Write a sequence for this structure.
């Protein structure tokens, strides 16, 4: 797009600035494409905002890569020139070339082996002392890596054992019927609560009746002597009533004990299962904390063993 493609109608200052910036961007893209195609015809393409944004990004990336390559080429050329200058200034260069030409096949192979070994060991010197020291250092590093691998294997086995124990514990928890209540749990709980309330109400009634027995006896003593003895409460009736009360109290305590097992759980089955799953997650968190402590103990023990060996 050139300035001739800008609309000739009246434009606001902001629109004019936008059109000018757009024209400059297209001019930059066109010049970049011409430099890349080097006289060859540029393929046709649709000129829109998306195409312009993509071409601008590509041009910026390409220029950055070109600058990087140019810098690398400049550095390499400078380094090569310095090496050549050093080689030309070295008075022993002709002697080294002559010695290399006079070497036999085995001598060339030995020289290449020494140079390769020096490069592999990152040893700038090819003296036997330097190469031997580098080999010893590499051997110590290899031995240290083997020790670390052994410690990692021990920790891995310990973690695998802990993982197996955690999985077994999880399986046992999942198989525990307490954590998986039956479908009729809500009905049984409601039934037991109703039975407990009935027994509690009867217990209160029986207690009130027992407490009112002395008053009744006094009233009966004040009554006329011609009251039918069959309607009077005897000691045997009181004993039988006390036994019944004790039986009801035992039944009430048993029902309360059964209901306390489900204390704290909501009435909804899903909510109860959610609380159980939260407890399982808390157990996993504690197990992870224990694993971290165990790993720290293993590392500390390994460090002490190494210090004793040294």
């Amino acid at each position: 797009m050139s300035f001739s493609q800008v609309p000739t109608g009246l434009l606001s200052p902001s629109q004019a600035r936008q059109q000018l910036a757009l024209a400059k961007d297209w001019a930059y893209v066109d010049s970049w494409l011409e430099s890349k195609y080097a006289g060859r015809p540029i393929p046709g393409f649709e000129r829109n905002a998306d195409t312009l944004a993509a071409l601008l990004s590509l041009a910026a990336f390409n220029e950055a890569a070109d600058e990087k390559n140019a810098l690398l080429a400049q550095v390499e050329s400078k380094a090569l020139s310095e090496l050549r200058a050093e080689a030309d200034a070295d008075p022993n260069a002709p002697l080294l070339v002559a010695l290399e030409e006079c070497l036999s096949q085995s001598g060339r192979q030995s020289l290449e082996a020494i140079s390769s070994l020096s490069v592999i060991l990152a040893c700038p010197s090819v003296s036997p002392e330097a190469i031997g020291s580098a080999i010893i250092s590499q051997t110590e590093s290899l031995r240290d890596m083997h020790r670390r691998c052994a410690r990692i294997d021990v920790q891995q086995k310990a973690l695998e054992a802990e993982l197996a124990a955690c999985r077994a514990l999880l399986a046992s928890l999942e198989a525990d019927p307490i954590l998986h209540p039956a479908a009729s749990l809500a009905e049984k709980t409601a039934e037991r609560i109703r039975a407990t309330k009935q027994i509690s109400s009867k217990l209160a009634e029986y207690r009130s009746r027992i407490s009112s027995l002395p008053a009744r006896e006094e009233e009966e003593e004040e009554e006329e002597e011609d009251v039918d003895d069959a309607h009077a409460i005897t000691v045997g009736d009181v004993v039988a009533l006390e036994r019944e009360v004790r039986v009801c109290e035992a039944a009430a305590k048993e029902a309360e004990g059964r209901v306390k097992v489900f204390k704290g759980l909501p009435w909804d089955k899903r909510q109860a299962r959610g609380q159980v799953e939260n407890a399982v997650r808390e157990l996993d968190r504690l197990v992870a904390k224990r694993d971290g402590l165990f790993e720290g103990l293993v590392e500390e023990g390994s460090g002490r063993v190494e210090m004793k060996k040294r």
Notes: The CA atoms of residues 261 and 272 lie 13 Å apart. Confidence is low (pLDDT under 50) at residues 1-9.
